[in-house]
Amino acid sequence: MDAAESPALRDSLLNRRERLVETISEVGAGDDLVRLLREVDAALKRFDTQTFGRCEACHQEVDDHLLHAHPLIEYCLCRLTPEQQDALQQDLDLATRLQFALLPAQDLRFDGWTTHFRYLPAGPVSGDYIDLVASDRGGGMYFFVGDVSGKGVSGAFVMARLGALLRGQIDFALPLPDLVGRANRLLAENNLPSQYATLICGHATPDGEMEICNAGHHPALVVRGGEVEPIDATGYPVGLFNQNPYRVTSLHLEANDALVLFTDGLIEARDPSGREYGLERFAAFLRKNHAAPPRALVAACLADIDAHRSGVPLHDDLSLLVLRRSP
Q: What DSSP character marks residue 223?
């Protein structure tokens, strides 16, 4: 695997181990928790012996996408028969189609807002989350962008669950902090210790008022003319702690102002030398292209990222959402 990514995976495993130890001390040494802890320790030992990412059977390198999705894995697909590999591919193809079916309608226009998004998994399925929900109570639109810890199938499961939890709260017309707080508690109570998600949740009204709750995610970017203003996190990721109060940031967008939301894969896209696209270049791009409508803005941004990557594959899921106040 890419040596530059190994420290990040090791840090993720160490964090997972710490969460497991804490959970075992609180709820007891359940068989599933003890087994998972042993698997984490075994993976960390493979780091120490420099065999992490190598198949125990054929001794070849495990595919990076598979390793990122399942960092505890010890084998590649060499143990599967051709028939089993075909069945697995069919399952992954179906999972891809189902995940894209969960995405909101493209180019949604509602109550004075226009939108466009792109959703680019690094592998067959994604741990990113995007949703747009038109509100029947008081008008306006709810919007969500999230990034689940981990990738692949496990991340996709958590993403689907998070979406169901959030959508299930909207009809109750809860204040935004309560909506995120309830989803946080439900996710924390029923997830593995290593599974959580950073999340931006917001509500935009027809008169341009907007509330944003940022739960440990990258800053939302407000684009006003040639200026870009970040809206930073106001709480921890969801699913990390049972009790965690959240706060909102309130703002007003005038005609043609825009809100831009994104996930890790955008600013961490790398060129052949390993240099990341970065938040500064992204903000400079938005300042230069601020007048473009959402669809054109997203397309131009992805073209700029492709130029930066120069053929280097995405190593993380990439999602981008733009909401613009209509003239």
A: E
Q: Is the pLDDT of residue 69 over 90?
A: no
pLDDT single digits (tens) 283-325: 999 999 999 999 999 999 999 999 999 999 888 899 999 999 9
Neighbours of 65 (CB within 10 A): 17
| DSSP output for 106-135 | TT-EETTEEEEEEEE-SSSS-SEEEEEEE-
Residue 216 has pLDDT above 80, yes or no: yes
Tell me how far apart the alpha carbons of residues 142 and 128 are, in angstroms, rounded to a whole number: 17
CATH class for the domain made up of 104-325: alpha beta
- Enter the pTM of the model: 0.76
* Residue 31 burial by Cβ neighbours in a 10 Å radius (0-12, 13-18, 19+): exposed
Is 1.20.1630.10 the CATH classification of the domain at 3-79?
A: no
Sheet holding 318-325, edge to edge: 109-110, 113-120, 318-325, 258-262, 220-224, 227-231
pLDDT number for residue 3: 45
DSSP code of 199? Answer: E
Q: Cα dihedral angle (308, 311, 314, 319), rounded to 10 degrees?
A: 60
Domain ranges of the chain: 3-79, 104-325
How confident is the model at residue 219, as a pLDDT?
Answer: 95
| Beta-carbon contacts of residue 42 (< 8 Å; ≥ 6 apart) | 72, 74
Q: Which two tokens stand for residue 263?
A: 């996930």
